TrEMBL record:
A Pfam short name: BolA
Taxonomic path: Eukaryota, Metazoa, Spiralia, Lophotrochozoa, Platyhelminthes
Protein name as annotated: BolA protein 3
PANTHER family in the record: BOLA-LIKE PROTEIN 3
Gene3D superfamilies, A to Z: BolA-like
Family statement drawn from the similarity comment of this UniProt entry: Belongs to the BolA/IbaG family.
Source superkingdom: Eukaryota
GO cellular component: mitochondrial matrix
């Protein structure tokens, strides 16, 4: 790709990430749908592929009333239990939950 040759790598990567914010990957849609199916009363479910679109790392935010009397650890375990098959294919995962 000529663009990569003309622009230093440390500039291309942030540009690529900036443009990737405007579309949703298949992995993001799949994970979001799985979470919506499980946490039907969730006020917020946000899934972001933070690996530049390759699906190796995700950042997940879930706000749900089901988490009200649960510790943060229990909330994260609930999310990870739902995504156990998808997590096997990931390199990293950041989870943020709120009741």
């Amino acid at each position: 790709m000529i663009f990569r040759w003309l622009v230093p790598r440390k500039i291309v990567s942030p540009l690529h990430r900036a443009f990737c914010r405007f579309y949703t990957t298949d992995g993001e849609r799949t994970i979001e749908q799985i979470l919506r199916d499980r946490f039907k009363t969730a006020r917020l479910i946000h899934v972001a592929d933070v690996s530049g679109g390759c699906g190796a790392m995700y950042q997940i935010e879930v706000e749900c009333d089901e988490f009200r009397n649960m510790s943060v650890l229990a909330q994260h375990r609930a999310v990870k239990q739902v995504l156990k098959d998808q997590i096997k294919e990931m390199h990293g995962l950041t989870i943020s939950t709120k009741a």
